[in-house]
Specification:
The chain is built from ten helices and twelve strands. It is an alpha/beta fold. Strand 1 and strand 2 form a beta hairpin. The chain binds iron/sulfur cluster.
Length: 312
């Protein structure tokens, strides 16, 4: 499958079939914590980045086997709302496979576009991000397209909430030293109160990211931010459910990753190429192996490498 990946066990969505509507790495942002790598096409232009007919053909072939899924999720190697055919895929799923719930993982930067809001109106769950209230911090964390304005993004999210009947879980990715100051958090809280999402999910780096200076946030600080944002409905994104308890988590893929990095340390891209995995799918397995202390990572000249934990 070229445009579908998984199903993967997701921290927020249970068993999720991924649908990737943009090639690596087309995005409106270039976030300092991005697990998918550096953005190579930084743009706000919506167009058919991958052929929607082919995406629909793959979905038809896969869903005809009636797999058990919690969600079909638009996510992937960039920003899915950039594909101008998103609405066509949503309509195809709702008209032909109404039993499946749809989720959209998005950076939330394009909802000022009324056309996009109409395209996503039949989705059950939208998970946008908002990492900053001020333009200064927005540019430092999200390193956006010059044409994007953070106030316009926030207004777009407010408008989405007014029109959208499904659930909105707003993610805030916390970067220590940037968006965790009381000043920034106060402004962020003010903006989120206006957006009025069903849930605010706090996230932070749980493995070394592409920028070595971006650090993990301590559990104490995450708790502090959660209290600070109250009375908003806030939760701290939990670790993935254990792979042992998830049917679709394939232990042989974990083993293949371990076998490969035992021979030589690999970047995530090396592992995707060698094992034929989608980067998002690989990330789920790597996160689990890091959690289980079976793998460690090191920044080297060519990027972030994964290798077996020495005590093994
Ligand atoms: S919005 Fe998502 S895909 Fe785009 S750079 Fe940020 S984390 Fe990566």
């Amino acid at each position: 499958m070229k445009y579908l990946f998984g199903p993967v066990p997701s921290r927020r969505l249970g068993i999720s079939l991924g649908v990737d509507l943009v090639p690596h790495k087309v995005c409106t942002l270039n976030c300092v914590f991005c697990e998918v790598g550096i953005t190579t096409t930084l743009t706000t232009q919506r167009k058919e980045y991958v052929p929607i007919d082919e995406v629909i053909n793959e979905l038809e072939a896969y869903l005809s086997q009636k797999p058990e899924l919690d969600y079909i999720t638009f996510s992937g190697q960039g920003e899915p709302t950039l594909n101008s055919g998103l609405g066509r895929v949503v309509s195809y799923l709702k008209d032909n496979h109404p039993g499946y719930k749809i989720a959209l993982l998005t950076n939330g930067t394009l909802f000022w576009d009324a056309g996009l809001r109409a395209e996503v109106s039949r989705i059950e769950l939208i998970l946008p991000s908002l990492n900053a209230a001020t333009d200064l911090i927005f540019r430092k964390i999200d390193r956006s397209c010059a044409s994007l304005d953070n106030n316009q993004i926030i207004e777009g999210l407010i408008q989405l909430r007014k029109e959208f009947a499904g659930k909105i879980y707003l993610e805030v990715f916390l970067v220590p030293g940037l968006n965790d100051t009381d000043t920034e958090l106060s402004l962020l809280k003010e903006a989120i109160l206006k957006i009025n999402p069903d849930l605010v999910q706090l996230n932070s780096l749980d493995r070394p990211g592409p920028e070595p200076w971006v650090k993990h946030m301590t559990a104490e600080k995450l708790d502090y931010v959660a209290s600070f944002l109250k009375p908003l409905p806030v939760e701290i994104v939990a670790k993935a459910t254990s792979r042992k308890s998830i049917q679709s988590f394939q232990n042989d893929i974990s083993q293949q990753i371990l076998d490969t990095i035992k021979r030589r340390p690999c970047t995530d891209q090396d592992l995707c190429d060698i094992l034929g995995l989608h980067k998002n799918e690989l990330n789920k397995y790597l996160s689990q192996l890091l959690d289980e202390d079976l793998v460690e990572s090191q920044h080297m000249e060519r990027g972030l490498f994964f290798l077996p934990k020495k005590s093994e």
